[in-house]
Amino acid sequence: MTDPAAGGTTQRIPESLRQAVSCDLKPVCPLAAPWRRMLWVVPLTIVAFLLPQLIMGPRPDLDQIGMVLGWLPMIVQLLLGLGLLGMALREAVPGIGISRGRIGGLMIAAIGLHVLVNAAIWRFYPTTVEGVWSLWWMCFRHELFLGIPFLLVVAWLAVRALPVRPRTIGLLSGVGAGVMADATWRMVCPISEVSHVLSSHLAPVFVLGALGYFLGWIWERSRYSIG
Amino acid sequence: MSSVSTEESDRRLVDIMVAYQMGEMEGFEQLFHALATSVRNYLASLSRDFDRAEDLLQETFLQVHRSRQTYSPPRPVKPWIFGIARYVYLMDRRSKVRKSRFETTAKVELPELPVDSLAEGLPVTDDLLRALDEVPEDRREAVLLHHVWGFSFREIGAMLGISERAAKLRSFRGIQALRAIMVEGEAG
Fold first, then answer.
1. Mutate to test the interface with A, among B3, B72, B89 (most CBs of A within 10 A)
2. Closest residue of B to A97, CA-based?
3. How far apart are CA B128 and CA B60, in angstroms?
4. What share of chain B is helix, strand, coil (3-state, %, to 5)?
5. Per-residue pLDDT tens over the stretch A129-174
6. Interface list for A 150-189 with B (CB within 8 A)
7. Which residues contact A15 (CB under 8 A, 6 or more apart)?
8. Residue ranges of the alpha helices (H) in chain A?
9. How far is A57 from chain B (nearest CA, A)?
10. Which of A68, A78, A77 has its CA nearest to residue A115?
11. In this predicted structure, what is the pLDDT of residue A226?
C-alpha cells in the first residue's frame, strides 16, 4: 500500500533501523486513554481531601459560608483541576494535542474561580486573625505539600507517553496540581483576607505551575539529542 | 483522494499498527512502506533539507518503535506518526539552535515537494515551489498537511496544538499568500 499523497515511490527500510526494531520486537500493550489514566489521580484526590480534614479539621465557618461558597466551589475547582491534569495527559500523546486557546481558557477558568470564590467569601464573611502574615508560610507549604504528589504522578504518567510539548504539559500539570491542592486546603483554612489568599493560596498554584514548566524544560533538554 | 479510499487506507493502517504492537515485524515493514515517503516529504518541508529529512525519517521510525505503546487503536495512525515526526523535527531544531551559537550554516533551498493535489487550480511548477518557499512556515505547514497529505483541519489542529478553526485559517491564509506571491511573480 502506498500513500496517495506520497508521490508513488516506496522507501527502503535502512538496515540499521530494521536491526534496531527486530532486536526489540516484544508485544506491547497500548497505552490506556487519558481519562482512564486519570484514575491514578482519584485516590490521590481522596487522600488530599481527607488528610487536611483529619489533621486540621474543617474550617470553622463552614456552616456560615454554606454550600454555595463552600462545597460547591470546591467540587467545581476539583473538576477543573482534574480537567487540567487530564489535558496534560492527553497532550502527552502525539497527534491528539489540545489547542492553546482551550488550555488557556481552562487555566483562566480555574484561577478565576479561585479568585471569585475567595472574593465572595471576603465580601460576605470576612475572616482575619492577628498576625495573619505569620500564617503565610503554614498555608503556603501545606498547599505545596498537597500539590506536589499530583504534579509528580501526572508528570510520571505523561513521561510514559511521548510529550511533544513537555513545557506545556509541565505547566498544565503544575497548575492542575495547584488547583487541586487549593480546592482541598480551602476547606481547612478560614482566613479570607485578600493578602493571605493571594500570597498563601494563589501563589502555590503559580509556584507549582512554574515548577511543572521547569520540569518540562529539563525533560525537553535532556531527553533527545540528535546528530 | 476520495474519502472512501482514505477511510479504507486508514482502517488498513490501524490493522497494520495493531499487528506491529503485537510484535510482528511485518507490521512495522508495512507501516514503513505505507508512510515513509510522505513522512520524509513532510520532514523535508519542515527542515528544507532532504538529506537531513532522511536522517530524521530514520529517527522518526525509531521513535515510533520506542513509543509504539502510545498509539491507541482505533485512532487514525497517520496523525500519530506525523505528530511524532514533528516532535523529532522540533527536537532536532532545538539541538541545532544550540549548536548554531557556535556554527553558521548556509541557507538551503526548499526541496521539491509532491504538490500534485496542492491548491486545486494552481499550476504545479517551479514557480509554485518557489512561492511555497516564501509562505510563512506555519502557514506552509498547514497548507501542505491539508492539501498534500490530506489531513482534516481537526487532525492538523491536534497535531500542531491549535484549534480546528486556527488550522483552517492558517491553511486559507497560506493559500492566499501563495496566490499573491505567484501573481506578483507573474506581474514582475
1. B72
2. B158
3. 28
4. 75, 0, 25
5. 777 677 888 899 999 999 999 999 999 999 888 888 899 999 999 9
6. 161-162, 164-165, 168
7. none
8. 15-23, 34-37, 41-56, 62-69, 71-91, 100-124, 136-160, 166-185, 194-196, 203-223
9. 42
10. A77
11. 45
Which positions ≥6 away from A24 have C-beta within 8 Å? B65
Could you say which residues from 9 to 38 on chain B have a Cβ atom under 8 Å away from some Cβ of chain A?
9, 12, 21-25, 28-30, 32-38
What distance in Å separates the CA atoms of residue A48 and residue A62, rounded to the nearest whole number?
18
pLDDT value of position A177: 96
Q: Which residue is listed with cell 479561585?
A: A114
**ipTM value of the model?**
0.77
Which of B29, B38, B90 is nearest residue A13 as measured by Cβ atoms?
Answer: B29
C-alpha cell read off for B148: 498534500
- Is the pLDDT at B116 greater than 50? The verdict is no
- Alpha-carbon B122 to chain mean position: 20
